[in-house]
Sequence to fold (73 residues):
Amino acid sequence: MNSIKEHLEQLMDLKRVVNIRFRTVDGGVTELKGHIVKMENVSGREIIETDAGYVIGADQILEINGQTFENIC
Fold:
């Protein structure tokens, strides 16, 4: 999980547009394009917020800019 956190922090610091593919709460898969505006730890879970208002748990992320991460939620 540290590698995904470090990767997200770098992208946030560089203010880069990211394509995030993630698993939704109901089990579907969604992809969005935007900027990461905030990262925080809530009850032991890494949470990111995008400029589109999406709040995504780091454990839900499947892919960032084409780079796959092994996350199972």
